[in-house]
Amino acid sequence: MAAKGTTAQKTQDTAAPKTQETTILQDAVKLKDLSKNAPELFGIKTGVDGIDKLFYKLEFSKDQEKPVIKPLGGIPAYSVINVSGVADTGKSLFAEQFAVTQANEGNNVLYVTVETPAEFLYSSLLFRANAMNIDKSKVEENIYILDVTRDFNIRGNINNFIKTIDNAASKFNIKNVVIDSITGFFESKEIYAREIVRTIYNFLKSKKLTTLMISQKRSGQEHLSAEAAGGYAVSHIVDGTIVFSKQVIMNKFDSSTFKKPIGEVIRLLRVDGCRMCGHDSKTYVFEIEQTGLIKVLYPLTSITNSNLNEKN
Q: pTM, whole model, 2 decimals?
C-alpha cells in the first residue's frame, strides 16, 4: 500500500510541475526629481463663468500671514473631470459650451459623441456658438468630431478607442477632449466600468488632454452625489466631479423653500471633489436660458438664509 501511495505522489508531482515566479520591481522616485515634469496649475475656461470661479489655488507670500485664494478661471489644465447627472440636467449643454469656448480660444477640441450622431451634433454646436456670439468659422475649424454612435468596433473595444484618440490627438494637435458619454462604453457591462474608465483616464493623463467625461445617473441615485451608472467607478478614478441635478416643485413646502411656483424646475450643481486644486463646495442654483446656455445664479444657501431671516 505504501508503494502505491509513493507512485501516486510521483505521478501528481509530474503532472503539476512547479513554475518559477517572475519578480518585477519598480523603483521609487525622489519627490524633487518629479519637479521638471510637474505641470503648471492654471485654469481652462469652460464658457460658464459661474463654474470657472469655483476652482482655485492658494498663493503664499511673506507679506501676508494667511494664504490668498486665487481663482483658476476654469477647470484645472490637464484634468479629467466627470460631469454627472440624470437626463435633462444640462450635462451635454455644458460640454458643448466648453467645446465652443475652447475652439474660440484657438484650441483644438476632440468631441467624442457616443449618444448623438455627428450630423445632429453639428447643428447643436453651431446653435451654441450663435447663442454665445462666437464666430462659427472658429468652431467649424477647431472642433473635431469622433462619432462612435454606430461603430461598435471602436465603442466596444477600448484599445481601438484609445488608438483612435491617440491618432486624432497627434494628427490635429488636440488640446481638449469631450466624451459624451463615458457611460456608453460600459452600459451593457457595468461590472467592467472601473477597468474601462481607468484605462481611458490613464491614457488621457499621459497625453495631458484636458477632458470632460459625461456620465449618466440612474433616476434612483442621489441626485447631488458623484454616484452614477457603474457606481462610483468614474468619480473615484477621475480628477474631479461636477454634479448637475434638477427637481420639479411639486408641493407647497418645496415652493416655499425654493421660492418657485409648483410645476417649475429648480436646477442645482456642485463640485464634488477635485484632487488637482481647491474648489468651492457649496451647492449653486443655475438655469438653462432660452438660448440653451447655462448660467449659474447664486448659492443655494442664499435661499435658506433668506427663509431663516423671514422666520425671525
A: 0.87
CATH topology assigned to domain 40-311 = Rossmann fold (3.40.50)
What percent of the chain stands above pLDDT 70? 87
pLDDT tens, residue by residue, 247-295: 999 999 989 888 899 999 999 999 999 999 999 999 999 999 999 999 9
Q: Is 245 helix (H, G, I), strand (E, B) or coil?
A: strand
DSSP assignment letter at 228: B
Judged on CB neighbours under 10 Å (0-12, 13-18, 19+), 129 is buried
Rounded Cα distance, 125 and 267, in Å = 22
Residue 47 phi, psi dihedral angles, 5° rounding:
95, -5
The answer to whether 72 and 56 have CB atoms below 8 angstroms apart is: yes
Backbone angles phi, psi at 278, to 5 degrees: -75, 160
What is the C-alpha separation between 121 and 63, in angstroms, rounded?
51
What distance in Å separates the CA atoms of residue 5 and residue 189, rounded to the nearest whole number?
A: 48
Cβ atoms of 236 and 201 closer than 8 Å = no
Per-10-residue mean pLDDT, the chain, length 312: 52 58 88 90 95 94 82 97 94 97 98 94 96 96 96 92 97 97 88 93 97 84 66 88 94 89 94 95 95 95 68 54
